[in-house]
UniProtKB/TrEMBL annotation:
InterPro entries: Glyas_Bleomycin-R_OHBP_Dase, Glyas_Fos-R_dOase_dom, VOC_core. This is VOC family protein. CDD domains: VOC_like (cd07263). It comes from the Bacteria. The lineage of its organism: Bacteria, Bacillati, Bacillota, Bacilli, Bacillales. Residues 1-127 form the VOC domain. PROSITE patterns: VOC. It comes from Paenibacillus aurantius.
Length: 127
């Protein structure tokens, strides 16, 4: 068994698609209409057959509440691994991404946290 799709609640699918592709550099794999929303799945440019990130609309009240509460408490909604966190941090800053936590060493890992402009905090980690 392996993880093939993971989802992330977003406030606006179009805004999220733009942020995750243009600012972060993910690649669009699927964009399929599903009722009033879309099945939007992204992949890493380095592993286009790997795990897909689904940009899931937060239109359900439980999803909105969950998203708002973890963001208010400063809890990242998900984590992305990077090889060089300082290089990635600079690249994202240059792309206009706002960080809530600069790269910080925590034991054997270094982490940073940024705002995805779609209701989530996202953590980056270099192991």
């Amino acid at each position: 068994m392996k993880i093939i799709v993971t989802s992330l609640f977003v406030q606006d699918q179009d805004q999220a698609l733009q942020f995750y592709t243009e600012k972060l550099g993910f690649v669009l794999k699927h964009d399929v209409p599903v009722g009033e929303f879309r099945w939007i799945a992204l992949v890493s440019p380095h592993d286009q057959d790997g795990t897909e990130l689904l940009l899931e609309p937060n239109n359900h009240p439980a999803a909105k509440d969950y998203q708002a509460r973890i963001a208010a408490d400063g809890i990242p909604a998900t984590m992305f691994g990077v090889e060089d966190i300082h290089k990635e941090h600079k690249r994202l800053l240059d792309n206009g991404v706002k960080f809530t936590m600069e790269p910080t060493q925590m034991g054997e890992v270094t982490i940073a946290v940024f705002d995805d402009t779609c209701g989530n905090l996202i953590q980056m980690i270099e192991k």
